[in-house]
Amino acid sequence: MILYHDLTQCSFLCRVNRFIARCLLDGEEITVHVKNTGRLRELLIPGALCWLEKSANPSRKTAYDLVAVEKDGRVINIDSQAPNLIAKEWVAKGGWGDITDLRSEYTHEDSRFDLTYLRDGIRGLIEVKGVTLFDDNDMAIFPDAPTSRGAKHLHGLIRAAQSGMETGLIFVIMKEDAVGFVPNQHTDPAFAAALREASAAGVRIVAACCHV
Fold first, then answer.
1. Which regions of the chain does DSSP assign to beta strands (E)?
2. pTM above 0.90, yes or no
3. Which residues of 110-140 are buried (b: 16+ CB within 10 A; e: fewer)?
């Protein structure tokens, strides 16, 4: 569970760059930090209702972080740090079975994976992806933009699985009522192909909704 504090609603105006946006708060235009460097074009549209968390650091250049967006009456968390924390908590509570030595950030070959663990003395690897893109039927889709890094991680998991390691990929769907999950074949066919290859190679793939 992730708890946000000192939240307030605002209206989205525009995105300045990957990290900064302009919002309207109580009639005043302010600059906020966007906690997600993805495109988010379907969410961050002028007039969208957003949720800001006030920073506890008074000396920061931006006083607020943009952490969630409302679309079609549903709140979608866009905080890119949230999926890893949620996945790690779920794994730690038994979602991945009986494991030990659960840790974040583990380098294997030429890639750094989000989670690692031991089961019966064998090292396991898990990569985590947050999903914030949905179609008109509430199907979750990943990625929202081409990601060569995502395909690289999948190929690394495939090689690790072929060497006898346990491997997995967790898609954390950042709203609670998605009806299913599919890779974004149109936007990133290379990632979609790598995901199918990973599934065939025995990489455990989980897509799970979270309550926001």
1. 7-15, 20-25, 28-34, 49-54, 64-71, 74-77, 100-108, 111-119, 122-131, 133-134, 139-142, 166-173, 180-183, 204-209
2. yes
3. ebebbbbbeeeeebbbbbbbbbbbbeeeeeb
| Amino acid letter for position 176 | E
CA-CA distance, 15 to 46, in Å (whole number)?
A: 9
Q: Counting Cβ atoms within 10 Å, is residue 63 exposed (0-12), middle (13-18) or buried (19+)?
A: middle
What single-letter amino acid sits at 48? A
Distance CA 161, CA 31 (A): 45
Residue count of the chain, please give it.
212
Sheet with 133-134: strands ordered across: 133-134, 139-142, 180-183
Summarised one tens digit per residue, pLDDT across range 39-84 is: 899 999 999 999 999 999 989 999 999 999 999 888 999 999 999 9
Rounded distance between C-alpha atoms, residue 161 and residue 128, angstroms: 16
Tokens of 108: 């294997």
Percentage of residues of the chain with pLDDT beyond 90: 92
Half-sphere exposure of 92 (CA within 13 A, CB side): 12
